[in-house]
Amino acid sequence: MYELFSKALTQEYISNEKPPNPSDTQCLNESNHNQFIHLDQLALERLPEKFRDNDILELIGVLSELTVHIMYSFKMDDNTLRYCHGSGFVQRVRKETFTLCPCRECEQKNVIQRSKEWYKLTIPTASPVFKHYNSKTNNDARAELFYDNESSPVSKVDIQSFEAEDLNGDDHDWGVCFGVTHDQALATRLTDSIVSYEKLQGQVYLWYKNQECTNDKLVVVVGHPHGGPKIVTIGQSPQRMNVKSIKNGQLLCRYAYDAVTCPGSSGSPVYILGQPISGFGYWFGHPHNHVKGIIVSNRSEESNESEANVSFSTTGMECVD
């Protein structure tokens, strides 16, 4: 049983340098960093035994392929330069034609040299990642793809805009940013990954419904804690928290889970096995947002309660079971 006792702590990450210096990172959650799974360590044995299925492992790998590191600079009140880091995932790639590519590289060229064919990337995230963002002054916002380790080749996409219903509201804390690129090979790679992910999601959902473990749930978070390389964390038994019912059998809700998250994890895609959504769901699913301190009550133990942190997703829409 969970009893919340602290204010939500959003998990964007602010650094003094670009990129962040790992030695400057003092994380309150450092004792749980041993639960981090780097992509080169991802294997069936890292999953809970009842969920050791090759399709689940492949799904996590494809979801990781679509996960991005979001970063931009901003100035503090005293004019000091800082960098904000978060996570997101590529949910859609749309081809644009007969207009000039708006990426920063093309904007430096004359009209004749600019690409006439480009791609718009829809990247769901959490609104707190962009609370320091100003589209008029932040001209360096970008999404970094394939940042799997310190030596991996990274593709960078300019972020042109950000949208959110409410930057400060608890019940409308999802957001979406839009990236642009004229790199056709990159767009093809991402499109193929989206198709693979949706196919695997359907296969795994059917597998799960045919198992005896349907009372158990697996939760997977993929992100860039502390603005560093991609990390996977695993949890179990997420709890759905209903916010309000919507017409046509839809529900606005968020999830609480025990997968480890840190500053920089806000906006990370959260995969919940058996979640009743189709594809990425309505309103772009439930990216990770914040943590809260809790008191865990356990009447079966002599000690009645203990303190811990629980992670929470943004709110999102899904079909009612």
From TrEMBL:
This is Peptidase S1 domain-containing protein.
